[in-house]
């Protein structure tokens, strides 16, 4: 198998068009603000000090990520999770590089933001993110370096929102059962329904 080089990429792919290059902005403008305001879900990527990469989902009510008035900063609340803190350890221990990909149910377009991040537990800022009757532990502040709409081809290929493309949940065991199988722990001590109910209290 041949390992490709950068020169091979230039041979195999056409150059990006001027529109594709020019659409990358250094701030979140009106359309980006509206997109983020409708988005209940984003994927966050981060890089650690040793080059470790993490990709993690984040979700909340539409607009759970806030945009500053000038569009040059995003504010991402950190909600309860599994306490691995992979993203936060990468951001605070590494170069602070972060990428976010926002999605809206039913939309094939994606909105992306790249930048540098820092974290704060400022009480006034935390109070502005109350959701589900709870405050986040910290808020990640992202200085926007790149903001742009990503073409819808990947979502269209995946048919992500099409009802006939949905996979019945019973095609796979529950997440808990899969983890117990992977670790050869047998059957989870509580039912799937109990696990889901416990998650609801932690939102």
From TrEMBL:
InterPro entries: Pyridox_Oxase_FMN-dep, Pyridox_Oxase_N, Split_barrel_FMN-bd. Residues 32-151 form the Pyridoxamine 5'-phosphate oxidase N-terminal domain. SUPFAM superfamilies: FMN-binding split barrel. Gene3D superfamilies: Electron Transport, Fmn-binding Protein, Chain A. Pfam families: PNPOx_N. It comes from the Bacteria. NCBIfam families: PPOX_FMN_DR2398. This is Pyridoxamine 5'-phosphate oxidase family protein. It comes from Phenylobacterium terrae. The lineage of its organism: Bacteria, Pseudomonadati, Pseudomonadota, Alphaproteobacteria, Caulobacterales.
